[in-house]
Structures are given as structure tokens and as C-alpha cells.
Design brief:
The strands form two sheets. This protein has a five-stranded mixed sheet, covered by helices on one side. The protein has a two-stranded antiparallel sheet with strand order 2-7. By secondary structure, it is of the alpha/beta class. The protein is about 25% helix and about 20% strand. The chain has a single domain, classed as 3-Layer(aba) Sandwich (Rossmann fold), CATH 3.40.50. It has four helices and seven strands. It holds the Pfam family HycI. One of its GO terms (molecular function) is enzyme activator activity.
């Protein structure tokens, strides 16, 4: 049996509302661009709420990628733990099924609540119905991904760039068009 932490990188949000989907877009890029050690799983959690309990409970360390309402300018990157988790849109009953803090509480009641951290970004627009990220979110997505990769490493996971990157990346940044 291995002593490695089981790490879950969970991208959450609603991709139909501009920057509300930043977490999912980050997960898509991580899946397309990187290969991870066997103890790391990257998952698009969308707006599944309590339906994410299974994968969350199977992890020891949870890294949530999401839009975060802080005090910084759009595109600012945040690392949140503990009570600060509620700054994440996923933790505020936005377009998500349920508050993810409640989901973590349910996981604890059911027997396993992993240590959780959010790597989030201040949205520029999370109310306009559009599948593209705002300019600020698009420009800062690579920085957000660097922070997620650093968090994976600090938790005991590894990553390498894919030699043959996936051709199934759904999101194409505006700057690439």
C-alpha cells in the first residue's frame, strides 16, 4: 500500500456564464496539457454539488479551481483555505447545486473530509451568458494553472507536459483566435 496522498483537482463552475466557468476551463487545460502521477486526478466538476461527494471522499487532498469573489481586480489569483473557502463562487450557491462547504460537511459526516484548498481567480464578469472567458480571466488563466501545479507538487503529486497534447480541448482562449 502506498502512503501517497490521493489528490483531486476539481474544476467547478458554470461554463455558460463567462468567468463562472474559470475552474472548469482550468481543469480542461490541465487535462489537455499535462500528465500527472497516479495519485492525482483532474476532474471537471461543473455544477454537480453533492454529486461530487464520491470523488471528494476518495481523496486525501482537494484542490478546487473556481471563480473567487475577493477584493482584488479581475484576474487576481487567490489561495484559500479554512473559513476563507466561502469566497469561492462554488461555496456561495451561485449557479451550483449546493454550497460546496455543505458538501464537505456531508463528506465529513459520511467518514472522509479531505483537506481542501481553493486556487481561484477574481472574475471580471460572471453574470453574462457567454461561453468565452472575459479578457482578464483569459489573460490570467496560465498564471492560475501555475498555482494549481505548484499546489499539486506541494501535496506530493507530480506533472509533466504532454508530448502529444489532446486535440479535444473544448475552450480556445480569445488570444489564440
Amino acid at each position: 500500500m502506498t502512503n501517497e496522498k490521493r489528490i483531486l483537482v476539481l474544476g467547478v463552475g458554470n461554463v455558460l456564464y463567462t468567468d463562472e466557468g474559470i475552474g472548469v476551463r482550468a481543469a480542461e487545460h490541465l487535462q489537455a496539457e499535462y500528465e500527472f502521477s497516479d495519485n492525482v486526478t483532474v476532474m471537471d466538476g461543473g455544477t454537480l454539488g453533492t454529486r461530487l461527494m464520491g470523488p471528494i471522499m476518495e481523496s486525501d487532498y482537494l484542490i478546487v479551481c473556481d471563480a473567487v469573489l475577493g477584493d482584488g481586480p479581475p484576474g487576481s489569483i487567490y489561495r484559500l483555505t479554512g473559513e476563507d473557502l466561502r469566497q469561492s463562487l462554488a461555496f456561495k450557491n451561485s449557479m451550483h447545486d449546493t454550497d460546496l462547504v455543505d458538501t464537505l460537511i456531508y463528506c465529513e459526516l459520511a467518514g472522509n473530509r479531505p483537506e481542501a484548498v481553493i486556487i481561484g481567480m477574481e472574475p471580471e464578469d460572471y453574470q453574462t451568458m457567454a461561453t468565452d472567458l472575459s479578457g482578464a480571466a483569459d489573460a490570467n488563466l496560465p498564471q492560475m494553472i501555475k498555482h494549481v501545479l505548484a499546489e499539486v507538487e506541494s501535496a506530493g503529486g507530480t506533472h509533466t507536459m504532454r508530448e502529444n497534447k489532446s486535440e479535444e480541448v473544448v475552450y480556445v482562449p480569445r488570444s489564440s483566435c
